């Protein structure tokens, strides 16, 4: 397993560039799963290689449901990434998580329904564990980086992934609070599931832009307010990425996620679809080499 870090950064709403990147170059990366959200920005910060992908594309062209998460994760894998740090704008479902707060998410409730959620299917079946969907090592380092950048972060929180693109009704927002969700967003699923299938340790830092509409005394969520808070969060997010990279250990120790597929693929060897194996050449690279 590679002992060097190559960090894939998925930039969410409010994070469309990384100014600190050296030797930066946008390069197209093709995927058998379709077109990624954008070209990938190859570069480095110091001695650490970095691959940056704006989740919605430059200019925020792509709505949540239309994001091709399979192509995005596959393209990052093909770009040599060893780990993924994802940044997302989120709404708050809890009073103690005000706008401007960051959250190092550690759990998800997936309410999406119109998206391809797995690399696998008929001809090659696999079931990866999602009990602990983020990498605790990366998540802790990301939370440390937020604080080092001057931000406030909650270490842990449950992210409710909704389909969108509309915001919640008040009834939905209150229901999600009853379920134990802390924050709400539209993009982290199936992204986190696919990262696990691709054996890429994944951490998500959420940037709170608003209180969701569960607070009856408040006005409903408005895009103009969200955008204003996103812009304020964006500068802190860029500093967080820089601090995260600067604090990485010189040598990357192995992660349990690196071998997530070892006991996940259950299709018998003589029943595996050769075309699926070719399509999954990047996702299955380590597994096929065994």
Task: Please describe what this structure looks like.
The longest helix has 24 residues, at 223-246. The model has no long low-confidence stretch (mean pLDDT 94). Strands 1, 2, 3, 4, 5, 6, 7, 8, 9, 10 and 11 form an eleven-stranded mixed sheet that branches. It is built from seven helices and eleven strands. It has helices at 69-78, 136-148, 170-178, 188-197, 223-246, 274-279, 285-288, and strands spanning 6-11, 22-27, 40-45, 48-54, 83-92, 102-105, 107-110, 153-155, 158-161, 183-185, 202-211. Strand 9, helix 3 and strand 10 form a beta-alpha-beta unit. The protein is of the alpha/beta class and 290 residues long.
Task: Produce the secondary structure layout.
Blueprint (H helix, E strand, L loop, with lengths): L5 E6 L10 E6 L12 E6 L2 E7 L14 H10 L4 E10 L9 E4 L1 E4 L25 H13 L4 E3 L2 E4 L8 H9 L4 E3 L2 H10 L4 E10 L11 H24 L27 H6 L5 H4 L2
Parallel strand pairs: 1-4, 1-5, 5-11, 6-8, 7-9, 9-10
Antiparallel strand pairs: 2-3, 3-4, 5-10, 6-11
Distance between the termini: 12 Å
Radius of gyration: 18 Å
The biggest sheet amounts to: 11 strands, mixed
Helix tally equals 7
Number of domains: 1
The total count of strands amounts to 11
Write the CATH architecture name: 3-Layer(aba) Sandwich
Helix content: 25-40%
The CATH topology corresponds to Rossmann fold
Query: Mean pLDDT across all residues, rounded?
Result: 94
What series of H and E elements makes up the topology? EEEEHEEEHEEHEHEHHH
Low-confidence stretches: none
What class do helices, strands and sheet pairing give?
Answer: alpha/beta
Broad shape = globular
In CATH, what is the class?
Alpha Beta
Tell me the β content.
15-25%
The CATH superfamily is known as: Nucleoside phosphorylase domain
